[in-house]
Structure formats: structure tokens, C-alpha cells
Amino acid sequence: MWVYNGRAYDLSEWIAKHPGGAFFIGRTKNRDITSIIHAYHKNPEGIERLLERYALDRDARPGDVHPKCNAPEFLFKEDFNSWRDTPRYRFDNKDDLLHRVKARLRQPQLAARIKKMDRLFNIVVAGLAVAYVAVQAMRIAAPQWMPLPLFIIAMVLLRCSLAGFGHYAVHRRQKGLNRVFANAFDINYVALGLVTADGHTLLHHPHTQSEVDIKKNVFTMMMRLPCLLRVPVHTIHKFGHLVTGMPIRIVDVLRITRKIGVTEVYGTWRNAIPHFAGSVALRLLLIGELVTYALAGDFLSWAPQFVATLWISTFLIVSSHDFEEDTDEHAADDADPQDWGIHQLTEAYDLKVIGNRYVDCFLSAGLSSHRAHHVLPYQGSGFANIATEDVLREEAVKFGLEWLPAKSFVTDRLPKLARAYLLSPSRQAQERQWGLVREHCSPTAWKASVAYAASGFGGLGSV
């Protein structure tokens, strides 16, 4: 079942036909897709007419919706129930922020500029990919021309930039080579795009800062660790993910896909194979780099770039929302309908690193125009978001919304995130009101630390 505007549909026959790719339909089975349809389509009204072919002519029931969104339970709060906790927004007001912005973007001149910016974005990405190969080749073949400090800086910047491309690739239609390139999301060592594409595009974006938004929870798992052990233990955990954990998860996803039937997820194996092939290829690349540096006797140059990339990228991912702060209940209900576009605009903010939006688009992993990205998540590049930012700002002002300046990742967000994620006591220490010494000397804390480090090698415990 699929639920749209409180009605039940059976889209099984549409999985393989979906112009945006079978992945998006297959992964939303037994979910409420109302916000997803309006977020990711330029013309939702046309989609509504198509949906009627698959209507079951009845209202949706709680049994039509999987209580945990057909996703791993650890991603949600223990008492989370999708039927109850999925936000319900109203999209029938043609004069709301989202409709007004989309209407302006249909103007021929602006639509042509957006396409041009997408092409320019892809050209820059191709250049970054060449630089990524060249920097590593130079470090291995002629290290005197690529000293260690320069190598670490270059690899952090390039990995963040290419992950930014992967960030937009998972939002694009999952057709053709996009199914392969979307796995560039993994190149910064943080995630596994094969599965996080679902959590990011289909749970986080349509339902930002609600209980459905797994991004609020998934990066707090390290908080079970004593604060002084958090960095080394989480780093070992993610190293385990790199060498064995994520390959195990890929095999597991493939096993599950075969078990439940590929038609239920991708429609056909023809749709599925590029997704898996791209994921496997990216994992082979990352592990191959590690092995190459080890065989070349230069492991000590690979290790610091791994640690620096991992932690900077992790902080970048959580820096564009106030996930570290306690927030009020964000879900809307029928008694208090909200404007989805305004909600997205107020729950995200833009980031800057050096102050140039086009450069920061890559240095921030695609988040320099993050507000435009959240209101228009179907756009395929950070440059397209920059091109539409003026329209969004002008329309936001008409709704009385203040357009706040971008926040600095280095001077604003990073210090706050470091205090929240690295310096705060563990969950156990907070619950039991332990001091620093007891927090780190508790047998329970050390047991949790060892288990957390080991779980990474099995692909468990975090994204």
C-alpha cells in the first residue's frame, strides 16, 4: 500500500515505470507519500491524476502504513509510529510559498538558466574527479611534490566536494548513470549511499525536524560513549565500516532484495544492478586506496586524511539544522495545517566556508544554498539552487519571513557542534549524574565502548 492525502493506493505496477526511477517508489511502500510527491514534483497536480489509476477507492487505514516506515527500527524513537507521527501538511493552497516559487521557476528564461547551471555544475565535478585522482597519484609516485600537509588538506576538500556531488546525485532521477554516480555520497567515509539515499531523500527532506526525520537521531549514537573516548572509539568504529562493515551491509541489502523480490523494490533487476554495481565499485575504490597506501609504505599519510575527512564531513552533515538543540514538536496535524514550504525554509539555513556561494557549494558538501535545496529538493545541483535563491528570498519576504544570512561553518557551527557532540557527558553519565571520573571508569562505559568499536566491523551501530 501507499498512502496519499489519506487515501489508499497500490502502486506496485508503477514501480518499474516511474520516470524518477524505481528506487523511489519501491522504498516508499507502506508509507504516507503526500509530502514526498509535493516536494519532488514540479507539477503534483498531474501526479494526482496519474495516481487515480491505482486508487483502491477507500480511505487509508493504520494497517496500510508500516509503523517504522519499512526502515531499521534503531533509526527511530522506541515509541515511534508512522501512522501517528508522520506530519500532515496541506498542499491544496495554490497561493502558498511552494506553489508560488514553483510557478516562477516555470518561466522560460529562469528554467533555461537552471539547466545551464546544472551543466556547469557537472563540468566542475568532472574537474574535481580528475584532481582527486591526480592528487593521490602524485602522493604515491612523487611525494616530494605532494607534502603531507598539502595532501591532507587536498583530500579533505576533494572528498567533501565529491560527496557534495553525491548529495545532489541521490536527489536526481535514479535513471541511467545517476544510479551509479549517486554512490559518490559515500566518498567521505560517513555513509552508505545504497541505503542512506532513502533516509536522506525520502525521510529527512519531506519530513524535516519531525519524528520521521532520522537525521535527528542517527548521528547521536556516539553519545553513548564517554566523552574522552568518543573520538578514538567512533573513529575505529568508522574504520570498521570502511574495511568490512559497509561491504557486509551491501551483501545484506542484496540478500533482502532477493528475499522479498526485486520487483517489490526496483521493479526489475535491470533497475537494481546499476545501484548495487555503483555501491560495490565505490567500496572497492575506498578499500583499494587504503591497500595501495599500505603497500606503498605510506599508510601514515592515508590515516590522517581519513580521520580529518571523517570528522569534518560528519560535522558538515549535521551543521545545517539545529539537530544538537532540543526542538519543539514540529509535526503538523489536520487541526493546525502548516505551509510545508515555510516549514522547510525556517528549519534549514545556509552555510558558508569562505563566503563565495559557488565555491562553498562544494566546500560545504552542497549546503551553501541549503534553504533552496530544502524547498526544492528535486533540483539536481547546488548551482541550480544558487540560481533560484533570489526567487525564494523574494517570495519569502512576501510571507513576512526574515531572510537570515548564511552561517559560518568554521566560526559558528563547528564550535557549537564540537561542544554538543564531543564534550558533553555520555547519555549514561547524564542519566545517572556521574562526574567525569566515574563516567570514564565505569565498567559499563568501557563495555559499551568496546562493543561500539567492534560493531563497526559488522556494519552496525550507525549509518
From TrEMBL:
The chain crosses the membrane at residues 120-142, 148-170. SUPFAM superfamilies: Cytochrome b5-like heme/steroid binding domain (SSF55856). Gene3D superfamilies: Cytochrome b5-like heme/steroid binding domain. GO terms for molecular function: oxidoreductase activity, acting on paired donors, with oxidation of a pair of donors resulting in the reduction of molecular oxygen to two molecules of water. It comes from the Bacteria. Pfam families: Cyt-b5 (PF00173), FA_desaturase (PF00487). Keywords: Membrane, Transmembrane, Transmembrane helix. One of its GO terms (cellular component) is membrane. GO terms for biological process: long-chain fatty acid biosynthetic process; unsaturated fatty acid biosynthetic process. InterPro entries: Cyt_B5-like_heme/steroid-bd, Cyt_B5-like_heme/steroid_sf, FA_desaturase_dom, Fatty_acid_desaturase. Residues 1-66 form the Cytochrome b5 heme-binding domain. PANTHER family: DELTA(5) FATTY ACID DESATURASE C-RELATED (PTHR19353:SF19), FATTY ACID DESATURASE 2 (PTHR19353). This is Cytochrome b5 heme-binding domain-containing protein.
